Amino acid sequence: MISLLIDTSNRPLSVAINKDGYCQAEINTTVKKTHSATLMVYINELFKMTGYKREDIDRIIVARGPGSYTGVRIGVTIAKTLAHALNIPLYSVSSLAVIAASSGMEGITAPMFDGRRGNVYTAIYQLECSTLEEVMDAGYMKLETVLDSLKAHDGGVVLADAGEKFSSGLETFTHAVPRISSVEKFTSILRQEDVHQMVPEYLKVSEAEKNWMERTQS
Asked: Whole-prediction pTM value?
């Protein structure tokens, strides 16, 4: 089983080719570059490094969000396009689960992204050996809310990107960025998608969508 894995949900970009769940080649960046300009370049570089062709790919796994509206949309669009063109299965994984899996930290963790206005996108996971379980559903919430939830789970580690500025004032955390190659062994967090029906998982509507809904409902 050869898989192409893609995560462009936030500032970092992570792409990989795995064989039978093990990484063959990966590119991970945290520089501020436009994902739309670099993603296909990096994917083509993976094919060069591994010697695989597009026709060798058996499935695609993409981070579905939450994250940057533009970032998530880029990754999902490319993944859907390739899956359709190659007629192969498409799977998705939560961008938060990617962080939890990438950290390799056993026990309770709460990966999070900045949600602006003092809020965060987060979930709580428990990692034990080869099992990654979501113990609190992903959501858009106040930082204090998730910290209280962590206390209810006997504490845990907050995972965040040190290069990201948090409007919530997040101060204590462990630096973690996505390595999408790490998710494939956690089969419970992968979700098979209909390539035509799949949509990004934003968890919160954008301001543009909110304004449109208000106009259409008034």
From this structure: 0.91
Give the number of other Cβ atoms within 10 Å of residue 214's Cβ.
9
The token duo for 161 is 């990107």
8-state DSSP, 188: G
What angle is formed at CA 56 by the lines to CA 25 and CA 42, rounded to 5 degrees?
Answer: 40
Degrees (nearest 5) of the Cα angle 178, 179, 182? 125
pLDDT tens, residue by residue, 64-98: 999 989 999 999 999 999 999 999 999 999 999 99
Counting every residue written for the chain, the total comes to 218
The kind and range of the H/E element at 27 are strand 22-29
Is 46 within 8 Å of 16 (Cβ atoms)?
Answer: yes
Residue matched to tokens 């991970």: 28
